Amino acid sequence: QVQLVESGGGLVQPGGSLSLSCAASGSIFRLYSMAWYRQAPGKQRELVAQIGSIGITNYKESVKGRFTISRDNAKRTVYLQMNSLKPDDTAVYYCSAGGNTGLGFRADYWGQGTQVTVSS
After folding, report:
1. What own/partner pairs with CB < 8 Å and gap ≥ 24 does 22-26 have?
2. DSSP letter string over 38-93?
3. How far is residue 50's CA from residue 110's CA, in Å, rounded to a whole number?
4. What confidence tens digit (pLDDT) does each residue in 10-56 have?
5. How is residue 26 annotated by DSSP?
6. Who contacts 50 (Cβ-Cβ below 8 Å, separation ≥6)?
7. Which of 7, 28, 85, 88 could lock onto 118 through a cystine, CB 3.0 to 4.6 A?
């Protein structure tokens, strides 16, 4: 069982930056692939970024060059640095722990979500 707790959301102006953190319980954090999803009102939850157990990353096309996912296995924490934020980035952001399959990321555990609002 893995418990995930996100933090770092908030209100930011367009063009600004935010850094999200996700702290995980459990001693085998290092074996999990981790991901950030987001869900905007009226839209489906979508995968934003993922990082494998050995650090290989993958991003949604619209956030490439603006968002960076990273992990610190010693702290059992995954991060999402978001720069050059746009109003379209407004959503609840969720952390997930799981694995990689031939069809993509498999989400086994979810955090409770943190709200990110980009508005002037």
Report:
1. 22/77, 22/78, 22/79, 22/80, 22/95, 22/111, 23/75, 23/76, 23/77, 24/76, 24/77, 24/78, 24/97, 25/1, 25/76, 26/1, 26/2, 26/76
2. EE-TTS--EEEEEE-TT--EEE-GGGTTTEEEEEETTTTEEEEEE-S--GGG-EEE
3. 14
4. 999 999 999 999 999 976 888 899 999 999 999 999 999 999 999 99
5. S
6. 33, 34, 35, 36, 57, 58, 69, 100, 105
7. 85
